[in-house]
Amino acid sequence: MTGSFGPSGSSLDPSILAAAVAVLRRGGLLGLPTETVYGLAADATDPRAVAAIYAAKQRPRFNPLIAHVADRASAEREGLFGPAAHRLAEAFWPGPLTLVVPMAPGGTVCDLARAGLASVGLRVPAPADTRAILAAFGRPVAAPSANRSGALSPTTAIDVRAELGSRVDLVVDGGPSLVGIESTIVACLGAGARLLRPGGIARADIETVLGHPLDHETLDLGGPLLSPGLLPSHYAPRALVRRDADQVGPGEALLTFGGRRLPGGAAAVTLDLSPSGDLVEAATNLFGMLRSLDASGASMIAVAPVPEHGLGEAINDRLKRAAAPR
Ligand code: TXA
Ligand code: MG
């Protein structure tokens, strides 16, 4: 980047940077690349801009949004960081971790973006170009994934256009999202730290930094929704999804893992999340491959088992939601 502000390492075209900031300043909607998935971004301090996000996504109002900021100093103006939150921010920002902390006095993220909660979800995304936009804008930016509510999260600029079309004023093309699955969300509100959503940073890596296990908020699909936004049916392609498949039915598409072949005749289309069995690669490919199999026209996507360790926890969480009754 050529300006005097913002993170080094950004090579964003100054005219794109200016256009992106102008969209945010006038309360518009911006397709914002991040390392996890593309966000549908708007000024988090402006309730009218935030309302436009909910409207474009057709999202239930009770779902709080993540506020994206350029750096830790900006995050600490918006939220109160205790020792655990401090340690996690230091270890994982910029990166695919969202911290839910008490809102700071003088915090600027509006009520609507927080869904009326006294806490705020904060994240410093990894791409230098994205942080350059946030730094130049100078305010927190609310950004849920840039898809219609309940649909697959977009991992390319083209996906954003396909999902939202003219509802978004400008899409910044940052290339494919490298992590490919949403951020891990950890709440640091009292003593401990609770996992609210598994995501791009594995539980074990967070627990290593904390020095103790995370408290686990229930993600039971049938259970009560302790965290707003954890809807049972989410991340759903048009086709039905069948998990832990040990065979393929006629006409089914197959999403496999680690080169595994399933008996039961040839699948209409087969994609492998990671032929070498690498869960990081599998996370990167998850949403794009579900989209491709959906586009193949199959009415059922059979999914081979994915191990639960590392990023497998987040992958299986998304697959469970994609397979949940609608
Ligand atoms: O990777 C990501 O996190 C992506 C990219 C664009 O940054 N964003 C994303 O945002 O996944 P979204 O809106 O789809 O997820 C927001 C979730 C909510 O559903 C809720 O579970 C949690 O974050 N959340 C946000 N603020 C919260 C709060 N104050 N209390 C509890 N949960 C909160
Ligand atoms: Mg989403």
Low-confidence blocks of residues? 1-5, 218-226
Distance between the termini: 45 Å
Largest sheet report = 10 strands, mixed
Overall spatial form: globular
Average predicted local confidence, pLDDT: 91
Order of SSEs, N→C? HEEHEHHEEHEHEEEHEEEEHEH
Question: How is this structure best described in words?
Answer:
The protein has helices at residues 14-25, 47-57, 72-78, 83-92, 128-137, 157-164, 203-210, 279-295, 312-323; strands at 30-32, 39-43, 66-68, 97-102, 119-123, 141-142, 170-171, 184-187, 194-197, 215-216, 240-242, 253-256, 270-272, 300-303. The protein is globular and about 60 Å long. It has 326 residues and is α/β, with parallel strands linked by helices. Residues 1-5 and 218-226 have low confidence and may be disordered. The protein has a 10-stranded mixed beta sheet with strand order 7-1-2-6-3-5-4-8-9-10, with helices on both faces. It is built from 9 helices and 14 strands. The protein starts with 13 loop residues before the first helix and ends with a helix. It is 29% helix and 15% strand. Bound molecules: threonylcarbamoyladenylate (TXA) and magnesium ion. Magnesium ion (MG) binds at residues 144-145, 153. Threonylcarbamoyladenylate binds next to strand 4, strand 5 and strand 9.
List the helices and strands and how they pair.
Blueprint: H1 14-25, E1 30-32, E2 39-43, H2 47-57, E3 66-68, H3 72-78, H4 83-92, E4 97-102, E5 119-123, H5 128-137, E6 141-142, H6 157-164, E7 170-171, E8 184-187, E9 194-197, H7 203-210, E10 215-216, E11 240-242, E12 253-256, E13 270-272, H8 279-295, E14 300-303, H9 312-323
Parallel strand pairs: 1-7, 3-5, 4-8, 9-10, 11-14, 12-13, 12-14
Antiparallel strand pairs: 1-2, 2-6, 3-6, 4-5, 8-9
Helix pairs in contact: 1-5
